[in-house]
Diguanylate cyclase (Bittarella massiliensis), 554 residues
Amino acid sequence: MTNKKTDRLNIQDFLFSVRLLSLFFAAIAFLQFAYWQVDAGAEFASYVWYVPLAAIAIAAAIYLCLFNLRRATKRQQRWGKALECGLMLGVFFFAIAVTGLWESQYKILFLFLIISYTFESGMRVGLGLAAFCSLAVLAIDAVWAPTQGGVNLQMQNDLLLCGAFIVTAWALGFYSQIRQEYIASLEKQVRVDGLTGLLNHRSFYDAVQAGFERAVREDQPLSLIFADVDYFKTYNDCHGHQAGDAALVAMAGLFTQLLGDGKQIFRYGGEEFSLILPGVGEEEARALAERLRAAVEEHPFPGEEVLPGGRLTISCGVAARTPQQADYKELVHSGDDALYRAKFFRKNRVEVYVSLLEQFPREGSEGVEEALASIRALIAVVNSRDMYTFGHTERVVYYADMMARQLALPPEEAGQLVYAAYVHDVGKINIPKEVLLKPIGLTDEEWGEMKRHPEEGAYILQNLPSLAFTAELVRHHHERYDGSGYPDGLKGEEIPYLSRVLTLVDSFDAILSDRPYKKGRTFEEGIAELVRCRGTQFDPALTDQFIEALRTVR
């Protein structure tokens, strides 16, 4: 439960207590009236009807309080409040009437009503209710109170009470207004980015969760666009952070101008922006992302000539909701993965997320659907334990598909490689979580635990008929070409051909990825590491092919 919701419920509890207390005092008025009647020797039947009538009115008012505060929709709340207020006014007038009208001390009951409704509904409602109650009290005095020498003394006395009504409504209304403005200011600071004026990272996740749930409920399309500024660190280093901030503000203005105020635009973090597009499909989102990219490329930013290409540009990743996505987090991961591809390969481009798991050969392959279902289940389990592994898996699959095309593998082998790439880390399911997520380097004992995951993965896959064909590849994807790998210490051509490919693509993404205990390297540094380990960790011929494929795509 959020703090805001808790605060609202606490206020509702307080207001309910105030109204309930006022009804309790009204009940005392009716009991006092009954006591007077008995004391005066009146027959029971002459006054008994007041008591059940009052009890029914009070019970109805209490029910309306509960209904209004706990169960009602906004429209029902408005009508409920009006009925509740009217009924409570009726109860109070009745209590005043039976306890002496102008002589009644229960006119103070109106103050409880003014306090609760002013605090709940604001100064305007409070002052209106205070004015109504004041006129009612003065009308009672004018009609029923006697005059002495032409002067209505009771009205003079009650003017002070009416003044208290007005002052209370004004003071509480003013306090309520200041409080609401202060809360709104705090919410804006929490939800709005102070630099660009766009909604921030926190707001994005609240909005995308609500949008995803609505899209699923109404079976409507939903797309995301992630945009990241290319070479922004270089721009900052050359011109300073103030120039970088000015560029981000200008970019936010470009997005708002191009898309209009109705679109949900967020500063996702640093130099990254995100858009939520309810009711927009993949193709429309792609076209919109391309317009954003072109608008930024054409906009003249001061000092952009120092950047590669002489322009400040953005890369965009697009992802659309699919029936296979279990929740909004999967949609966000898809958008992140598409952005990663756009940033990694050439930049200044738009990439649409495509799941190779969904599109890879289905041409009459037996057991494909069963294999896909098994892979989805395994990925969901791995993702629940380690979010890094999820994103890493998607990228390794992308590189595996790239290598399958580079090597012109037959469809059957290409499919085997891609499926193995999806499940190559499934053995981490059996690795203790404190080892898997440890933010610093592992001890020898912990490293021994981690090195078990290829065997654990192969064992799991052997017991899944639809994926058993990937077990051998997964078992040997940490073998090294010089024989120093694990678990079996295979060397050179002893290592299955596709396992050698999988080792390359898996290791390359690990080199480039940030982890709590290490900083990811750049693309060029990753290539240099492949060259350095050529012939020791990696198959030399395959290493050359992989580097060629990376250079070609980039």
About this structure: The beta strands are 222-229, 264-269, 272-278, 314-320, 350-352. The CA atoms of residues 201 and 268 lie 5 Å apart. Residues 3-189 form one domain. The longest strand covers residues 222-229.
